[in-house]
Amino acid sequence: MPLPSKMEISGLDVFYGATRALYDVDMKVAEKRVSALIGPSGCGKSTFLRCLNRMNDIIEGCRVDGDVLLDGNDIYARDLDVVQLRARVGMVFQKPNPFPKSIYDNVAYGPRIHGLTNNAGELDEIVESSLRKAGLYDEVADRMSAPGTSLSGGQQQRLCIARAIAISPEVILMDEPCSALDPIATAKVEELIDELKEDFTIAIVTHNMQQAARVSQYTAFFHLGKLVEFGDTEAIFTNPEEKRTQDYITGRFG
Amino acid sequence: MPEHTVKSYDEELNQMTGTILRMGGMVEQQLAEAITALVKRDPELAARVIQDDKPVDRLEHEVDHLVMRLLALRQPMAVDLRLITASLKISSDLERIGDYAANVAKRAGALSQVEPMRPVVVIPRMSLIVQGMIKDVLDAYMGRDVDKALDVWRRDEEVDEIYNSLFRELLTYMMEDPRHITPCTHLLFIAKNIERMGDHATNIAETISFLVTGTPLDEVRPKGDKTPFTTTPADLQDTGSEEV
């Protein structure tokens, strides 16, 4: 990897109780690039993603060993403030999950609780620029006080992305952000991901391999809790080194 | 290679490769018969070979259709993607070989109307090599055999050498007696057509190498046809095979 890495993961093991979900995973997440995580269901890719902002902390019986560094600092350090971590490493989920609040308040929520603004004017600016970056502003400009849940699925997902970027995170984790969207909404989110990588480091879990091939620069293939292959997206999808990767991406998995 | 989870995907791929192999068999036969028509001075056989070009063209369209369908429906990846794009290129190379064979047949028909010329014996020898190349390159495609493909790729040099010497010989005949110009020109075009078929077989060999390895062939093949630079037969006299 020639690029500077934003996050470095080494020797990562994850257990859910007695079940082992990840085996000794080493990976570097390149700064201001999109890294895609692919693999069959249950391969550990979502578990891996959730380790990157300690979302696994809330799961009972989950144990994480190994190192996860953000800009060289251990995010599992004892004195680390998890709320601050999640402000730096934001997340977008599979199903759009807007708060039961207005469109405006959904985006304003993060900046408010983190105290990022001094006055209403600044907050308005953040809300507008976040919605613009998420490609949603023009569609909702005239109904900011309507509930977020009144939007279509694709708009809701972009609202969630606007909410995630409103607090200016450094890394955005996306767990199947398009699986509940129609092809047009999916295309909009993909276009958005392409633009977001100018400012953010992105890691995305997707079951749609064509999507991984389209949006990412690096791809990691997980299988049975192990990182089988990690490299340039183009190489992974045109001429992978590992047979298991080849079998998976060509649809030959037995 | 294990089978795809979706069986109809494998069936479609097999149909595509099967169509290519059929095309290959047909053009191989087309060339053999065109040469027989030339040697036996048989205008009827020549006419049949010209007709045989149509089914080859139809099979090429069939491959086009299958490839588009596979690309649209399966979103192929990695080795499958390489196989599908390679097959598209190979079918167009085979179609060209068929066209050249038909052209050889047309000229064989014309030559059967005039006095026989001596170099007619060299042409079947040249053609046998190219027929062998076409056959082997199809075997290489079927068996995903890079070594076999590379062997075909190297054999093209021999074809180029025969073509060079034939070119020289035909020029001398034409200088001796202007009445030889018409048959010799036909023979020259026939030889050039066969030489081009060899080039298409080497294209196919390169495509197969990419299909199997995923990286383009980076060796440089010696370019053997020196006739474009020729002004007199003497220009070709001392050139050896080591020249690039």
Folded structure, characterized:
The complex is a heterodimer of chains A (254) and B (244). With 254 residues, chain A is of the alpha/beta class. Chain A has one domain (5-249): P-loop containing nucleotide triphosphate hydrolases (Rossmann fold). Helix content of chain A is 35%, strand content 26%. The model of chain A has no long low-confidence stretch (mean pLDDT 92). Chain A has helices spanning 45-51, 82-88, 103-113, 120-133, 137-140, 153-165, 183-196, 209-215, 233-238, 243-249, and strands at residues 5-16, 19-30, 34-38, 62-70, 73-74, 89-92, 171-175, 201-205, 218-223, 226-232. Chain A is globular. With 244 residues, chain B is mostly helical. Chain B has a single domain (7-229), classed as Phosphate transport system protein phou homolog 2, domain 2 (Methane Monooxygenase Hydroxylase, Chain G, domain 1). Chain B is 76% helix and 0% strand. Chain B is built from 7 helices and no strands. Chain B has helices at 7-40, 43-51, 53-74, 78-111, 122-143, 146-176, 181-213. In chain B, helix 3 (53-74) runs antiparallel to helix 4 (78-111) and helix 4 packs antiparallel against helix 7 (181-213). The N and C termini of chain B lie far apart (40 Å). Residues 238-244 of chain B have low confidence and may be disordered. The A-B interface holds A 209-210, 213, 237-240, 246-247, 249-254 and B 1-6, 9, 74-82, 214-215.
Structure described in brief:
The complex is a heterodimer of chains A (254) and B (244). With 254 residues, chain A is an alpha/beta fold.
